[in-house]
């Protein structure tokens, strides 16, 4: 039987169904309570704006395609994390929004302590706040066990460390030895970020 629908109608119907599906997804109940982001400039949503760093991008032409204009994002528009959800940077966090998640990412940060130890310290600060608000360590651990942790980091370990041997001791390492060092340090930091360590070591010094 020949269809009476016009060609444009054949295209419009699946497009409409797709839009309705996206609308349902947008209004769906969140699958996780919080979203925590660790990273460098690719993930930064404005933390460097309030840090004593030269790496700042809170001015045009950055953000020319972002609704709010320049925000400290190292891009013309959204970061990859913004496509999942908009998480406020740690610099703007408060008791009202930390349960949704926090973005700790900072442009020019890295794995080594010289360029990245503050992100672990900031996460411990947030965990301490959440624990204080919930007034229950077990409840805090239960909440954090359901969260998403996104970690994107590594390039600055070379850009701001390995290739700047005049400032750091990186000339002591071979390429393989330095890569092994970064992997080990990142592994140690992930253990600190892990929920089983976060709530029990909130006041421990950063690694």
TrEMBL record:
Keywords: Hydrolase, Lipid degradation, Lipid metabolism, Secreted, Signal. It holds the Pfam family Lipase_GDSL. It is found in: Secreted. The keyword Phosphoprotein does not apply. Residues 1-28 form the signal peptide. The keyword Signal applies. Belongs to the 'GDSL' lipolytic enzyme family. PANTHER family: GDSL-LIKE LIPASE/ACYLHYDROLASE-RELATED, SGNH HYDROLASE-TYPE ESTERASE DOMAIN-CONTAINING PROTEIN. This is GDSL esterase/lipase. It comes from Hibiscus sabdariffa (roselle).
């Amino acid at each position: 039987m020949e269809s009476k629908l016009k060609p444009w109608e054949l295209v419009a119907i699946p497009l409409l169904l797709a839009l309705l599906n996206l609308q349902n997804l947008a209004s769906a109940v969140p699958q996780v309570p919080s979203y925590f982001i660790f990273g460098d400039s690719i993930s930064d949503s404005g933390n460097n704006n309030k840090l004593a760093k030269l790496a700042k991008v809170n001015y045009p032409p950055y953000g020319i395609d972002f609704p709010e204009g320049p925000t400290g994002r190292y891009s013309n528009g959204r970061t990859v994390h913004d496509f999942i959800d908009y998480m406020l940077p740690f610099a703007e966090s408060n008791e009202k929004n930390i349960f949704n998640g926090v973005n700790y990412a900072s442009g020019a940060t890295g794995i080594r302590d010289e360029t990245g130890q503050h992100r672990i310290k900031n996460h411990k600060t947030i965990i301490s706040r959440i624990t204080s608000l919930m007034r229950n360590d077990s409840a805090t651990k239960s909440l954090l066990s359901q969260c998403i942790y996104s970690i994107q980091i590594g390039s600055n370990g070379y850009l701001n460390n390995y290739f700047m041997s005049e400032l750091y001791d990186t000339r002591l390492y071979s390429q393989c030895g330095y890569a092994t060092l970064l992997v080990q340090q990142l592994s140690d930091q992930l253990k600190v970020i892990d929920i089983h360590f976060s709530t029990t070591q909130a006041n421990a010094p950063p690694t």
